[in-house]
């Protein structure tokens, strides 16, 4: 579930408990993107798995909520995803990490359909790669979800690869000689697009002059970096992502938190009340760390 809010409800909590315990449904929800210790619901209900976000270095994402209800972690920083307007883009948030856990749960359950939601949940937690403090903690929960380890946990043995047979390999089907070659689908280039080579300065991250980010809570763009790339890329540029407010509110639920360039916390409902005015001067985005040198 890619949604959340600060208010809990006894009735809502009882419904989640019922579908977990009586209907054998495993609910997985985003822990929240406020970067604080507050609870986001339904993730903080006991019957729901709360998912934190980590980056490619197994570090907790700066925006990920930290509280005792965080149960498990998954990648959630600069995740390649589909774009509502077509093509692909990189997004960050616990809403990106939650599908990883949901997918692992579905995969494991498909191999063991007779197991209960509780057993699948326990398998994911007990087989997770421990991160942070030993054991469960408020940042990573039980740790990084591991599909192979969870499957092994329920199977009692490591997954067995299918045997290699001597079946004939079918000949490839070739298009007619005059058939046009399909155009490759490429992700739009932006400040947080992964580099093809290993450039020495962060300027190569900034191909789109309209790409906005925040430096010390001040709105900046790629043109600002290019003007003094060496000096402005020697420190840490804290970028905010995903990108524009008309897109981020599609990727995040109306109650999902993000931070304005001035440091104030808002949500997409706040934008929707007056999008023309509130999206005019800056780009509303969820928090995502980016080190300018790491390109």
UniProtKB/TrEMBL annotation:
- Recorded E.C. number(s)? 3.4.21.62
Q: Which UniProt keywords are present, listed alphabetically? A: Hydrolase, Protease, Serine protease
**An annotated GO cellular component:** extracellular space
Q: Which stretches are tagged as biased composition: Pro residues?
A: 169-185
| Any one of the GO BP annotations | proteolysis
Q: What class of enzyme is it?
A: hydrolase
The region called Disordered is annotated at: 169-193
The Peptidase S8/S53 domain, residue ranges: 1-143
Q: Could you give a GO molecular-function term held by this entry?
A: serine-type endopeptidase activity
Q: Which reaction does it catalyse?
A: Hydrolysis of proteins with broad specificity for peptide bonds, and a preference for a large uncharged residue in P1. Hydrolyzes peptide amides
Q: Name one Pfam family in it.
A: Peptidase_S8
The record, for InterPro entries, names: Peptidase_S8/S53_dom (IPR000209), Peptidase_S8/S53_dom_sf (IPR036852), Peptidase_S8_Ser-AS (IPR023828), Peptidase_S8_subtilisin-like (IPR050131)
Taxonomy, superkingdom: Eukaryota
Q: Which family does it belong to?
A: Belongs to the peptidase S8 family.
Name of the protein described by the UniProt record: subtilisin
